[in-house]
Predict the 3D structure of the following.
Amino acid sequence: MSDASFETMNGHKLLPHYQTTAYYDILAWLDTIPLSRSVRNLDADFGDGILVAEIIAYFFPEYVDLDMFIIARNMSQRTKNWRILNSDVLPKLSLHAPGTVVHDITNGDNRAVELFLLHLREKIEEHLIRTGRKSRLQWETWRSFNVERYRLPQLLMTPRTPRRMGHLPN
């Protein structure tokens, strides 16, 4: 299966292995956040920007006025929601979604939402640490828990043999 073509099984996309790791990591993260609707398909569910606003509001309620967002039934409403995110909300996290990214997300293009959510999660974590709401240790603990719980691949490391002072290994 090539990177460009995706087969489906029971309505779910089959992604190459390196992509499934990030995909399931994002789903696990989203599972910890109370959202107004369940996430079944990243590409479709995040197209209108409302769930992105809810994620940010969960961590930083003072940054988002959820009443500004409308349930999008067409492309212009989706684009309007993303315009609000880009102008009023994302800059508070030092984040901007370029027009091409917004276009890909609103059109449900493959992996655009997944990549954006990975970046959003990183910015949220950085901002939580910068504002003193979360320590780096808590993030590492969450990541360790997440890796163990969902059995994400880890780097294989060879054990190091202790070196004696002044001696290099042979």
